[in-house]
């Protein structure tokens, strides 16, 4: 009887505890899924942090590049300013030389006009003297002819 009572008691406990065991099993499965989800979340969190770190590194490199570009742009602007100053100085110097050349050209023109006038006057004088010489030659020739006729 004691044995039957123990068996009965076991059977009742087993029936009564069965839903508790099932519920505990489901709780353990839920706990297992929660732990797996937690692990996946932590892995995702780790990947996000790694991506965040890479993004920050890229951001840092971009900022450094931007800084170098700004420095290069500053140097280019300075070079451009120097080139503009050199060009301005060159233009001023060129204008000065051009003005001097124009003045020398005007002086050469005046000299050419004077020489041209002198040459024209000399040509006129040469033509006049040449005509006179021709006239004198003709007169001398006539005198010679007369003298030759007188000696004969």
UniProtKB/TrEMBL annotation:
Superkingdom assignment: Bacteria
Q: Per UniProt, which keywords does this protein have?
A: Coiled coil
As recorded in UniProt, coiled-coil segments are 24-118
Protein name per UniProt:
Uncharacterized protein
